[in-house]
């Protein structure tokens, strides 16, 4: 699949160069729908607290996580997962088979700058990120010169689309903040390689 087909408009492009493309669409879903999805996922998902090794000691992962296979029994998936996946697939035209969820409880929850592990993903397919709940800022940085830095406030109901190449050349993260922020849930849709499904990344969970 040509990556150009994933970004059929210049509107909302945050990154657009030989190193990759990242596009942001606010109001991908309406406010009422986004709020309904947030409420259902907050109540129904079995959120997990995880720990990771950092600097020779085990620490708490600063957010709660969950994960679903999209090719599982539909009856086992929350309606919000089914509905959001259908909308994303219809928009992006990509057969996503996995969604990783993160719950940011307050400004102390975060995810460090990172790029996805490409050996866990089907080559050439993008990552689609739907945000629900409170608005949080994401920082996107180029790994090499020119070291472009972009900040984008991920609003509830928004869609962030990152192509495969961007994971090679850019990092992205959600930093901690002292500002008052509401709870946020992110849904990161991916096409994962089946033989590696369930592999964790070094940050202790499924990203964003």
What does this structure look like?
The chain has 208 residues and is an alpha+beta fold. It has helices at 31-44, 79-92, 166-169, and strands at residues 13-17, 20-25, 48-54, 57-69, 98-104, 111-114, 127-133, 136-142, 149-154, 159-162, 170-174, 184-190. The strands form two sheets. The protein has an eight-stranded antiparallel β-sheet. The chain has a four-stranded antiparallel β-sheet with strand order 6-11-8-9.
Biggest pleated-sheet summary: 8 strands, antiparallel
Distance between the termini: 25 Å
Percent in strands: 35-45%
CATH topology: Jelly Rolls
Q: What do we call the CATH homologous superfamily?
A: Alpha-ketoglutarate-dependent dioxygenase AlkB-like
Low-confidence stretches: 1-5, 195-208
**What's the domain count?**
1
Question: How many H/I helical runs?
Answer: 3
Widest β-sheet, arrangement of strands: 1-2-10-7-12-5-4-3
Q: What is the CATH architecture assignment?
A: Sandwich
Order of helices and strands: EEHEEHEEEEEEHEE
How many strand units?
A: 12
Q: What is the 3D shape?
A: globular
């Amino acid at each position: 699949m040509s990556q150009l087909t994933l970004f059929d408009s210049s509107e909302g492009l945050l990154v657009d160069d030989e190193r990759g493309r990242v596009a942001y669409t606010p109001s991908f879903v309406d406010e009422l729908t986004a709020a309904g999805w947030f409420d259902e996922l907050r109540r129904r998902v079995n959120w997990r607290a995880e720990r990771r090794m950092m600097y020779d000691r085990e620490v708490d992962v600063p957010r709660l996580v969950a994960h679903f296979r999209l090719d599982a029994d539909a009856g086992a998936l929350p309606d919000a997962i089914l509905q959001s996946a259908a909308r994303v697939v219809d928009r992006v035209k990509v057969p996503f088979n996995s969604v990783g969820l993160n719950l940011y409880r307050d400004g102390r929850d975060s995810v460090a700058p990172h790029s996805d592990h490409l050996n866990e993903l089907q080559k050439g397919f993008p990552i689609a990120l739907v945000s629900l709940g409170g608005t949080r800022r994401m920082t996107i940085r180029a790994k090499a010169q020119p070291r472009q830095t972009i900040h984008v406030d991920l609003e509830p109901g928004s869609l962030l689309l990152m192509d495969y190449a961007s994971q090679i050349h850019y990092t992205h993260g959600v930093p901690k903040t002292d500002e008052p922020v509401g709870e946020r849930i992110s849904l990161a849709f991916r096409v994962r390689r089946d033989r590696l499904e369930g592999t964790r990344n070094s940050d202790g969970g499924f990203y964003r």
